[in-house]
Every structure is written in C-alpha cells, then in structure tokens.
Amino acid sequence: MPPVPETATPADTAEWAAIATVLARGDDRGRLLEILLEVRDAKGGIGISQAGLLALAERLRLFPSEAYEVATAFPAVNYAATTPYAADGCGDLVCGLLHGALGAGVCRNRCDGPRPEPVPRSFAAYRAAGGYGQLGRIMADPGAAAQMLERLSVHQAVGRAGVGFPVAEKWRQVIAAGGTPVVIVNGDEGELAIFKDRFILENDPHGVIEAALVAARVIGADQVFLYVRDDYVPIHAILRQALMEVAGAGLAEGLALELRRSGGAFICGEETALIASLEGRPARPVERPPFPTACGYLGRPTLLHNVETFYRVTAAWGGTLGSPASALLDPEVRLFSVSGRVCAPGPKPMRGLLRLADLVEIAGGMQDGHALGGMVIGGSAGALVSAADCYRPLADLLDEGLRLGTGGAIVFGATDEPRAIAARMAAYLARESCGQCGPCRIGTAHASRALAAPGPLDQHLLEDLAAVMGEASLCALGRNAGRFLGRLSIPGRGVSA
Length: 497
Ligand SMILES: Cc1cc2nc3c(=O)[nH]c(=O)nc-3n(C[C@H](O)[C@H](O)[C@H](O)COP(=O)(O)O)c2cc1C
Ligand code: SF4
Known about the structure:
By secondary structure, this protein is α/β, with parallel strands linked by helices. It contains 21 helices and 9 strands. It has a 5-stranded mixed sheet. Helix 3 (50-60) packs across helix 4 (64-73). 50% of the residues are buried. The site of iron/sulfur cluster has 14 residues, from helix 19 and helix 21. Iron/sulfur cluster binds at residues 267, 285, 433-437, 440-441, 473-475, 477-478.
C-alpha cells in the first residue's frame, strides 16, 4: 500500500488500515470482489471510497478503470456510499404485496419473514449418520469413481437450478474436457422469493460439502468453491466452520476449498457471470459455447451445480438421514419456496403435489381477509396462474407447458391486481438486467414501463418485445423475460388490458 498521505482524515486512515488488514489475508486479484466486500464489512457496511479504491488498484496492479468497473458492478460492494449496506425492505414482488412499495432493494429472499438462528446438523451428527462415508470410499479407492458415476446415471439425477440437465452427463463432459477441473457450488440463490438453498445450507451443510468433495474426486478436480449470497450471513459462519471441520479431519487433502460471496445481483448466479466474478471481473454473462464444462474458471473445465443438486446426488449413493433437509433425498420430493399472502410461508418439501392450491394449505392457509387469487410459479420470469388453475390437477398444467422452475410459489389474493404483479416482476427484471445487450436492457425497461402505465395495455408491444428478447438476448435472463412477456400477451391467460 502507498503510505497514508499527511492530509488523510481519521476516516481515510481507518479505511487504509482496513484495506491493509484485508490484503494481508490474500492479495490475489481474482479475489477482488471478496476483498471489496471485506473492506465494506470492516467499515461497518460502508463501501470503499474512491481514494481507497485507487490505492487498492495500485496494490493489486490493476488499472484504476478495472477496479472501478468491478466496484460499481456489484451493489453489495456499496461503493463510495455514505450509509451502510443493510438488509431492508426491498419493495420487490412479495414485499410489495405485503407491505406496499419500500424500495431499498437489498432484502430479497427473506420473503418467509423473520427466522430463528439456524441450527445445522453438526459434523459429528452427520458422520454418525454415515456421512462422509462415500467420500472415504472414493479417497481409499479412486477406482470407485466410474461406479459412482454410473450410479448417478441410473439414479437419473438432474440439475435443480431450473433446466433439469442430467447430472452424470455434465460430469462426463468435464472429464472428457481433460486438464484439472474446478468444482463450484452455486449458492447465489438470487431468484425472486426462492429460499430452498438457504434451507438446505442452514440445516445440512455437510451434505452439500460431501457431495462437492466426492464430485471433485470423481472428476479429478483440485479446487472447490462455495459461492454463496452475500446477505446469507448466518450461512457464511456455518460454512466456514464446516470447512474447517472437514479440513481438520483430513477429508480435503489435495483440494483447495474456498468460500466466496456473491455481489448482490441476480445475474451473479448465471454460471458464466459467476465465474467472471470469481476471477475478479464484473458479473457479465458470455456467449456459450464453449460451456463452462470445457472452458470455465480461468479457462479450466468447470463443474458447476446448484446447492440442491449437490445435496441430492448423495441419494444416488445412499444419502444420510437425520436433518429436516434429508426429506429431499427422496427423489419424488420437491422443495417449494412458498411466500406471499399465506399464514406460514417458507420452504415446503412436498411429495406428490396434486394441485398448486394444496400449497396454500401446507403453508397455513390464506391470511385473514384474503381469498386465493392465484400464484406466480417459477420465479421472476415465471407464470401467473389463476386461482381456478391452482385448483386443477397439476399434471394437466404441466402438460399444458407450465414449468415449476426452481419451485417458487408466490401466493396472491383475489383483490391483488395481476397487472400490478406483472409490473413488479418486469421492474425486477429491468433492474437486474446486466445491461450488456440491447434487447434485454431496453426490452425489460420498456415492458416495465408499459405494464406500470395507466390505461389499456399495449399487447402488440408485449408481443414484439417477447419475440425480440426471446431470440436475441445473450443469456437466459433476457430470453426468459421474453417468454414471460409472451405469456402475458396470450388472450385469456395474460393480464387484463
Ligand atoms: C439470471 C440467472 C440467474 C441464475 N441464478 C442462479 C442461482 O442463483 N443459482 C443457481 O444454482 N443457478 C442459477 N442460474 C443457473 C446457472 O446458470 C446454472 O445453469 C446452474 O447453476 C446449473 O446448476 P444445475 O446443473 O445444478 O442445474 C441462473 C441463471 C440465470 C440466467
Ligand atoms: S440477456 Fe440481459 S442479463 Fe443477459 S447478458 Fe444480456 S443484458 Fe445481461
């Protein structure tokens, strides 16, 4: 660090001391986002100042513009702010439904209300239930890898981030790419009103870690990242402790394990954007192919899965029971994140759900004074399902093309206006678009304005936007936003004009 100038104020001096302390823990430029978050934490939530950023850039041998680009790309860095970055009412869809417009924009995924301190299954309890047995097996006999991969195929494990890509196929692609791969656990969970990964990590962190370590052994990786939302603060402590226990027990020999935080934007969870942020660059998606399985973190083959995907693969080898999350080891169980106008919102593991309306009963019924008006299914670019459809067989809705995505179910009341709900969803997508490509940046903003404006809805505009965004957006955020607008413009299925 350059010396502190004589003109420095006490605040400058304190900031420079914080930067020096953070850099002493590691000054790899790939850690730039993490370094900026650590400086923010050391300053009580206030982001790094311009002078501090310039000093940091010099120390990391970055152009000032490179450091500035990263500092301003991630809301959680809180660059040059005067007030702390703190969880507050976000004003997004669920907040808006329940509390009206709030607007600070940082409390996403607390849509199930205040919660007690999590009490995860301990390392000792996990081991006592047979945990880390599969890891021990493959560490003792690397030849078991082929058999474990085969069991994954037979088990028909699929990705749980929404698309449902076969897990074994992804692992095979990484192995086929050659070289030394990297494993990434995607715990960004930035999708609107989804809290399933939080539920798993709060209850059974070792189940996720064991699966990631087994994956690393099977594909021959030497590095494992756990990438977790910045505002899942209790989970950071849980995972740090868990990683120490694993390393202390000699279960991670030859593997570098690292917890990294994401930067407070939905796009951070998109796999190529996530990898960019791990490399110290802004989280902007890149065109695929090449897919991360062949060319990911630092150009290396990369196996990246959602938290729930990792957790559930342990079932293929005989997962361990004993925590609330263990219900998910039954392949027939689906984890729904239920929020909105219900009495008991939260994560709801469900086996054989027959009708969406049954989720309301599981979640304690409708709040006083409200009748079911419908649900938003599948997240921020999901579908608005009417109350009548919620009472139809779910199988029929799925046959007609409904996608459950990551299992989000936002329940609204009969007096809630579907167009206002769609407007909030569009506003969220417009805010979270990374802005890199025109169809998404301009299209989401147009759609948000059109839906929020008074008067008849311009259906033709929605149709045009849907076509352009669906075809010309670079990543799935823009393409899914296009599909969302396309559904809204279907007569009888969309929102009223
Ligand atoms: C805008 C956007 C945000 C995403 N956010 C997440 C996320 O928070 N967590 C996640 O696991 N996948 C997220 N994904 C999907 C990832 O790109 C990737 O496909 C996924 O992590 C693969 O996991 P799976 O193989 O377990 O299904 C997101 C995708 C997009 C387009
Ligand atoms: S589609 Fe949207 S979020 Fe994706 S790269 Fe383009 S602008 Fe960014």
